[in-house]
Design brief:
Four copies of one chain form a homotetramer. By secondary structure, chain A is mainly alpha-helical. Helices cover 64% and strands 4% of the residues of chain A. Chain A has 21 helices and six strands. Chain A has helices at residues 6-12, 32-39, 47-63, 69-85, 87-94, 100-109, 111-114, 123-159, 189-214, 234-240, 250-254, 257-284, 312-329, 333-357, 362-371, 376-387, 391-407, 417-426, 438-445, 447-453, 462-507, and strands at residues 164-169, 182-188, 216-217, 245-246, 292-293, 359-360. Chain A has a two-stranded antiparallel sheet. The longest helix of chain A is centred in the last third of the chain and has 46 residues, at 462-507. Chain A is elongated, with a radius of gyration of 31 Å. Chain A starts with 5 loop residues before the first helix and ends with a helix. The interface between B and D is large, with 52 and 52 residues.
Chain lengths: 508, 508, 508, 508
């Protein structure tokens, strides 16, 4: 537990200058045991966001004549001094948490000037404005990291367009229903990765949608009905903070919990895609599967077992989505939202390096792909094609074949025309030899040919996947331009705010 | 527990025709105790969705020459007979669950024709296609109900643009952090409701976004790499099912769990808005608050307490979002998704009637609004305006005033200029009389004037709220047209499918 | 959705005889759209529990003279007729849900007699009494199934006391943090299973503790303060229902949600043990691990892939605990509690059969155990023992050895004294040859010897494990006797109730 | 984010002395971006627990001759120096996290002595032993705080045995299903609080049960099969750490996640009781209910609304259980377990002060109790008693009465014999006057008489509640003695460990 003294908490906590015991409303200081309890739930204050809002608010108040020009100028100069000291350091020094701006001004300039800051807004504004600013930063950072991740994955996929790999099913599910990881069919490693790329492309669309939802300004909504202070301009503050729109109902603006849920709605699916991939890779990197091996830098070892190379980064990434869900359920969903975005961004920043250094054991992949009857469905399809049988009949003949072969210790490579005929004769609803050549049988179950035959839209044939990679590369270009444009607009708004401050200071 | 016999389960369950013990792969029937266990988790099969997919698939197979034309025609005719019997009834009769189409055809037409249905697709297709069809139906029904709900809420708001009501804070939160419900300021009931209308307007935008995500066809992705059957057309099936696009990677298409999460991401925020409103109304309808009263038809009573009128529908609606979250966490998120959409749609269908019959106790609302010092912040603002004091000084003088008044049993109505001066003198950082007139003091704290003064953008002044109501009415028109257009396109696709069937039957 | 008509719901739902529109308190019938919404959340009524409570309540009322003896006798005779018809069928027929007893009596005997049943109790009593009865049934059934499961697992362990198997780490975790499944050391399959047996032994202790918590009678607590009806005896009802104690505060008794949480607290850990085991077995049964194979009767297959043998029962069992947690979070935790107990009991009933038929691939287990350097820690221990080096030095020399060997494609079997010396010389903090014999090195890493050397308390040496198996067999005997005693006491209470009814009917 | 340099992380993290890049197994340092990501999930290390285990382990190793006596003595002396410096400070200084003991010894005494510490145990032991030690501390602190809480609540209840208060229903539920808070019947405030006391009495029993589960020693289980080091004594370490028993299967001992779930199972119900009470009090302290008022020291105020007195401590306590559940679902349930125990203990430490200073508005409580027809059920009971009517008939007559009275604006106090007769005549299944005296009617609905009449077991009559208070006081005595005994045993074990260290140092 923190070692701060009780005094510090009593006098320097949230809104301390309005909670002096016996002055104003309350007659007692906060109970020490309650202070101790609350510490555990203390959020890291969003000092930079409070600072930006404080500045924009004061510019507006001064421009609109709500506070005397000389007071406004004095405040803005003080904020410049605070920036020289370091915003976080200075605000921590004076206490007050979300109200650290007012605490600083009262400390530095006295009650008569410092006490003028907060007119026309509330603690609620501080919470909602800082939440909106924080979320837009998280989202844009996520977009940028996501782009780098997609790029690295597409490059990886390109290298493995021809790498045959098993396809397991029923598919993976991270949370909830567990793996079966049974051999189903075959694909290429590049194709497999492109499935995740396509998912991440859709995730970017969703991030853009929620970016627009946080780009609406709650500033000036106060605690839910705004203020009756004359000349107060919510539009001017919106502009100085770089928002694109304004809430048309202050009570709506104050219901900020909804907007952390918008973040979670996005984190829910995005983290699921990431964790889904690394849940697979965790299994793929066991000695038994041995399909891939992570670079040492993403691994840990053991204090007693000298041979242990634990793929801890894969585990960290595969746990992401579980934590996002748990945090969404806590009473303090704001804190959970901060942690979740941070984790997702940190996770995305790891992936390019992981993909670049990931060793794919190409031969092992191809060997496993051919070993466990993954071509059985294609053999059934060959029977349909060659003999015109109904699908179900062909399917059941091959099922019978697999049962016989396994019981006799035979492998797919051992199946001849005659061996298949034994199964066809045993199967009660057919009962005759099929007379297929061993060549047709073996071709149908050949992993590489299976992949190459699948030239249908969305299929794993290299020719198809290369087209999709080209499409994904084009989309990377387009999305890059869109994200940069958003970044630029935020930069311009920040400059506009500083210029407005300069203008006031100079004119004052 | 269900009373079905074990026999029924053994022989008629999912894929029974491919799981006959000793025929094909498996040598044993499913263990009876496992059948019993699974029953608890049985999902209601999406028979109508399977049926639509079965038909579109057969049309495509026949048109493309993948199955003999006479077989295709026989199958389509059989499906028409199934429709005459009733799709759900007929499919339940033959068992097979998701494979009830094949089960029906084998039962009615024999293995030789019935066994041809499933070529080129998998159980995976059945799951993903039916999930996509189900979700698009849910979403469009939700959109329609949401429109009706918004309409009823706007009409209600219009009636209560002038109804003064308390504003409580710190706001409500449904799940997680609890109510405080302390008197903060005042607003109107119409303004309060419009905050929820604005939220629901944004929810519609999100629903449109996920509608687009489910309008992508997974059909023909088979179990993750599509098929190698020649001439197979995923595009034709997409068209016949009314989808707008096609997954460009079959493995991506198969990872269907992502797409139930997209539903949950939407349900998460939408259900939260609904439950947030009714969590409030549940408290508002206690005898102590007595702000509103629901119509009897939304209430229950007690087996022993003759006076009890329990607002059970409010409770049901306020629980919605909790259930959505819990279901998202279960292993079977598909089942949870079905239940959650159903609940949300049912909930939305209740709201128009509730709003129409909700009795607002207008006098009680206004009385409570004025009773608990909700005008104190406006009194502080008046002191700033009249005497040029810093906000914080004025705020602390009024805090002192409230403390004195409460300890002496005085109410807001009792505050005179002289009484305020006592507080100003007691407050250590000021210490002088303010000399405000009683008129100014009383006007500042008058609930109706508080509301009327707030003409800022987003404020509760009736003149402002009427503008927002007009804007919301225009948006209702626009959204109505958009939803109808989506409905129409689905209707047209359904007709196209039937015409394609007609054409084949006639030509066959 | 259910196909019941609205009429049925309007007139036959919960407490219909006290909710006739316009008669009594409420002037309207329940809104049809609310009825539809509620259907989705309908719980399966606990008719047999209501019935038992109804009978005990009437016996007490009659014995205490609270209702006229002739009325009491008429009611008890009617209940006997109901039993002849079938309790569930009769109660469904008359509607009323939890009040189906009163509904039946009013229907059969008229208002004048039927209307006397409910005196001195409430809907609350019906809920809490039936919850207590249901939970004690679930718990005792769980205990019995758990005993059978432990027995089957101990028998299985006995067969595999000598079966060498890999030990993977960092351990498994079902929900939340994922598998790593890296080779750590070696153990026997019997020892592994006994770890789960020990856990289940502790689970039984917890079940006994919560059994005692549900064996407290809430009957007569009414809605929270009991009744003022004279001569009312909560003690007599307690006795007739077979409870062991009585709540000493009726308001406490009414807060039933706590008691479903007691169930969940138990289900939380018990389901986790079960799912933990089967999460392992799911991985163990992949083709890559191939350590075990389930019997066909616990598996499914595929509609297109003839080779697929999906271990669906393992998956079902490994999902158990996820569902328990999700249900605990829903608004209707009572419903979730019913489902969770049912699943856990069904799951436990499956396990004996699974263990009996589970095929362990003994050779494959032993082969994997020796393959991936699982003896490296024991080689380090041998160096400490033979050369007196610090543990950390020995550990790092072996780490260096493994790195060199892997890079050169050597396996544990290839390590000679000279090869180890290369590593010792390369390791910078030692730098000299160790001079160990190849024999010592190979013995240290021999999987069977590794196991046999571990004769410490809790170790995997067969001699130790056989002792623990004997201890677990003794505990099975003891626990069996304890469970039977509880069953017997419930049976005796049931007989006492019937005898009391007989006595009244005969005397009446 | 932390400002530690990358160097610090690279070289001082968990197990740094076994992860030097290029020395031993791994060739690379941990990737910087992975280090950054992991920081967010860093747990506060349990340095004091590691320290206690390190000491006990070395004593055992030395006594058993596993490490040379002079090395053991040197290590124990170094640990004494570490204690002089401060255990946490010294361990933070040397890095190594859970392995900070070895890191310290290597730093202070060199590899040759320091490298001997870890023989025969693993990181797994460090995790499970420290988890067991932490949990037993948490549990015993919880027991002590719980005792103080119960004491304060019983004292509070004693003061309010006669304070009439409304009883609301259907009951409260913290998480999930929401409040209805409709007037049901009446009780006393003391009786109400005693219901929670009874619940907490049962919670202590559960805490004792899980205390026994964590008092089993996992020390020496290593990573799941123990060690093959000769003379190693798990029993001696158990004894020195003050455990009561030992895991009989090392693999069982290593599966520590189960044991955090045992903590959660207990926290789940305990936190629910606490939050349940404060969820009520949060509503009770609204201006509308106004039944209670917390002391200022448990409240906050507002930056703009001078009148705001927010009961923030009640809110904190009512959120407890929500956070416990959310944390149980995260991937890192160990971290969540630490936070949850800390919160529960902090919460319990607040309650005595809250109860002592809680102001109950006695008149307001009694006034509300009589106002909203809470006596209606007793009026029905009076009709049954006086006129021999069936309960249901009486119940419906009174329901009719309430409907008429409400529509005519009459209150319970206004009901006369004649007025009741109007209802009786209107009720279609009766239709005659009842002829009850106004005196009987008014007595039946008198809140104080309602309470006094309820002398049944578990009823709210003061005479009954005083008996229960006496019983709860006796139990406080008994439980106090039991908790002290546990504390004493832990103290004695700690002394035994120090004496064993002394003996070795002296003999060395």
């Amino acid at each position: 537990m923190s070692k701060k003294t009780e005094d510090e908490y009593t006098y320097r906590g949230h809104l301390w200058f309005a909670m002096r015991p016996g002055i104003g409303l309350l007659t007692e200081a906060v109970a020490p045991e309650f202070q101790i309890a609350e510490r555990g739930w203390e959020k890291k204050p969003s000092f930079l966001a409070y600072h930006m809002f404080d500045k924009a608010h004061v510019v507006m108040l001064t421009e609109q004549g709500i506070i005397p020009r000389e007071n406004g100028v004095a405040i803005l100069k003080a904020f410049r001094r605070m920036e020289a000291e370091g915003v976080i350091k200075a605000r921590e020094r004076v206490g007050g948490v979300d109200h650290s701006g007012e605490a600083y001004l009262i400390t530095e300039l006295g009650w008569d000037i410092g006490g003028r800051l907060h007119i026309g807004r509330s603690t609620g504004d501080l919470a909602t404005v800082s939440l909106h600013l924080a979320q837009r930063d998280y989202i844009i950072e996520t977009m940028e990291s996501l782009l780098a991740t997609r790029k690295a994955m597409v490059e990886f996929a390109e290298k493995h367009v021809e790498t045959i790999t098993p396809m397991y099913s029923p598919g993976l599910t991270v949370y909830g229903s567990s793996y079966m990881m049974q051999h189903a069919q075959v694909m290429t490693f590049g194709y497999y990765i492109m499935a995740f790329v396509n998912q991440l492309e859709r995730e970017l669309r969703k991030l853009e949608a929620i970016y627009d939802l946080v780009q609406i300004s709650p500033a000036g909504a106060a605690i839910g009905i705004g203020t009756d202070v004359q000349n107060f301009s919510r539009n001017r503050t919106m502009e100085l903070l770089g928002f694109d729109d304004i809430y048309r109902n202050c009570y709506d603006a104050e219901k900020h919990e909804w907007y952390t849920l918008d973040s979670f709605a996005s984190l829910l699916t995005l983290s699921h895609v990431i964790s889904g991939l690394f849940h697979d890779l965790l299994i793929y990197s066991t000695s038994e599967f041995n399909l891939v091996e992570p670079a040492d830098r993403y691994c840990g070892t053991s204090s007693i077992m000298p041979q242990k190379k634990n793929p801890t980064a894969f585990r960290w990434l595969s746990d992401l989505t579980v934590n996002v869900k748990a945090r969404m359920l806590g009473a303090d969903s704001v804190d959970g939202m901060h942690r979740s975005w941070t984790d997702v961004i940190n996770g995305l920043r790891m992936i390019p390096g992981i993909m670049e250094t990931l060793q794919v054991n190409v031969e092992r992949n191809e060997e496993l792909a051919g070993e466990f009857w993954s071509g059985a469905a294609d053999l059934a399809a060959a029977i349909v094609r060659e003999r015109g049988l109904p699908w179900r009949t062909a399917h059941q003949i091959v099922a019978t074949l697999v049962r016989i072969a396994k019981s006799e210790g035979n492998r797919p490579q051992d199946v001849t025309g005659a061996y298949l005929d034994r199964a066809a004769k045993e199967y009660p609803d057919y009962g005759e030899p099929l007379g297929l050549s061993t060549r047709i049988i073996q071709d149908s179950m050949n992993p590489r040919l299976m992949v190459e035959r699948r030239t249908l839209v969305g299929g794993p044939a290299p020719v198809r996947v290369r087209e999709e990679i080209a499409a994904s590369n084009r989309l990377l270009q387009i999305d890059g331009v869109r994200i940069e444009a958003r970044r630029r607009r935020l930069g311009e708004a920040a400059k506009k705010l500083e210029r407005a401050i300069d203008a006031l200071i100079e004119s004052g």
